[in-house]
Design a protein that fits this description.
about 450 residues; alpha/beta; Rossmann fold; 2 domains; seven-stranded parallel beta sheet; six-stranded parallel beta sheet
Length: about 450
């Protein structure tokens, strides 16, 4: 199947071909024809499935099919839960629409409102916004949504989780009744269904498999290591394998900051990304990471949820998450149709129970790799992981706040000490795939803004 066969115009096909996409992903193959026909859509798809292009491409085409004369009003509105997602979606709109005369704008809070007001005086065909700031503009009457033809709610479940339902309803109230509605959500709770019922007319239902659940292309590994030697091991792995574009997860913001600083000192360009950072710092970190200037991005689960980065070559769990499902989300950032990804977990004696929970959830054992020189010291006993941190850093556990159950003493039941499954695993040294796995992943034009 090709993009052209889905009914997309030559300008759009050219733009996606330039991006290197050869064929539509399943959500694109299903959603594009429906949206082109003008129908409403309820899409069950999460980040990484190609959903953004799935709605952006036909949206652009629909707008082109009915050109307006004179000053164009805002004709398409995309609501997203976070600033980062708004920026990513708007970037996609610009990339895919690069051969079309349409103008887009992103709008989010946390930055000065005046440049946004100024931009709204000019032409904006497609507005990508977070609900809160959009509402500010509506209240100040600095935005006019009376001509919106297409509404997209992206990651609707997250918008509800973040408490945006009232804001969304206020926005809906000022939109024209006659319009096309597209709702995307990774989950379908009763709340989402209620929202969809009130919003969508005879929607097509399209659901694509949760991408990460059984993504065999993700090579998962466990590296047993002592608690205090994790950073040393991580530095060695990154340097030896020449890993680029590594997304590293820690449990706490504090841990993320500290690790990023230490890696930087080790000569590995790294930055932490989390809610305490300014918007400018986060945007800069993300842009540099995408263009591979920044080798490592250190994030907490919450922070990573707010950023749209996927198809990374390497995801590292510097610390295992307290909730096994978060492991699946984390490693879902790597790998995608047709290309491999690696998910490495540095696991110390405190984390054996977490590892078992994860393996139970994903219904498989993760291969263990013992790195020479990092033998686990059997004298070190497990300590409880308190408040999401086992290092007495005092960092709050990013909202999860649960403490772990009692530590396992000894570790006799763990696989790290002895080793039925260690022998055949790849040694750490020189076993990387290709010379610079990240090189193939570098995106072009990621910074142009
Ligand atoms: P999304 O789910 O929209 O966040 O997209 C995930 C990633 O897949 C993005 O980085 C896109 O650049 C990429 N992508 C989207 N569509 C395709 C495609 N048809 N072929 C290859 N990659 C794609």
């Amino acid at each position: 199947m090709t993009f052209a066969s889905l009914g997309l115009s030559e300008e759009l096909v050219r733009a996606v071909t330039e991006r290197g996409y050869t064929e539509p992903t399943p959500i694109q193959a299903q959603a594009i024809p429906v949206i082109l026909k003008g129908g409403d859509l309820m899409g069950g798809a999460q980040t990484g499935t190609g959903k953004t292009a799935g709605f952006t491409l036909p949206l652009l085409q629909r707008l082109m099919e009915k050109p307006v004369t004179g000053k164009a009003p805002i004709r398409a509105l995309v609501l997203t839960p976070t600033r980062e997602l708004a920026a990513q979606v708007e970037e996609s709109v610009r990339l895919y629409g690069k051969y079309l005369p349409l103008k887009s704008m992103m709008m989010f809070g946390g930055v000065n409102i005046n440049p946004q007001i100024k931009q709204l005086h000019g032409r904006v065909d497609i507005l990508v916004a977070t609900p809160g700031r959009l509402l500010d503009h509506l209240q100040q009457k600095t935005v006019n949504l009376s001509q919106v033809e297409i509404l997209v709610l992206d990651e609707a479940d997250r918008m509800l989780d973040m408490g945006f339902i009232r804001d969304i309803k206020k926005v809906l109230a000022v939109l024209p009744k006659q319009r096309q509605n597209l709702l995307f959500s990774a989950t379908f709770s009763d709340e989402i269904k209620l929202l969809a019922d009130g919003l969508l007319t005879n929607p097509a239902l399209i659901e694509v498999a949760r991408r990460n659940q059984a993504n065999e292309l993700i090579e998962q590994r466990v590296y047993p290591v002592d608690r205090e030697r994790k950073r040393e091991l991580l530095t060695q792995l990154i340097k030896e394998h020449n890993w680029f574009q590594v997304l590293v997860f820690t449990r706490t913001k504090h841990g993320a900051n500290r690790l990023a600083e230490q890696l930087d000192k080790d000569g590995i360009p790294a930055m932490a990304i989390h809610g305490n950072k300014s918007q400018a710092a986060r945007t800069r970190a993300l842009a540099e990471f995408k263009t591979a200037k920044l080798q490592v991005l250190v994030a907490t689960d919450i922070a990573a949820r707010g950023i749209d980065i996927s198809e990374l070559p390497h995801v590292v769990n510097f610390e295992l998450p307290n909730v096994a499902e978060d492991y699946v989300h984390r490693i879902g950032r790597t790998g995608r149709a047709g290309s491999e990804g690696e998910a490495s977990s540095l696991v110390c004696v405190d984390e054996h129970k977490l590892l078992r929970d994860i393996e139970r959830l994903i219904k498989r054992d993760i291969p263990v790799v013992n790195v020479p020189g990092f033998d686990v010291d059997p004298r070190i006993k497990a300590e409880p992981i308190l408040n999401g941190s086992n290092r007495g850093q005092g960092g709050r556990g990013q909202g999860q706040g649960r403490s772990q159950s009692a530590p396992r003493s000894g570790g006799g039941q763990a696989r790290t000490g002895g080793a039925p499954r260690t022998g055949g695993a790849k040694p750490a040294g020189g076993a990387g795939r290709g010379s610079v796995p990240g090189a193939a992943q570098h995106r072009s034009g990621g910074r142009g803004r």
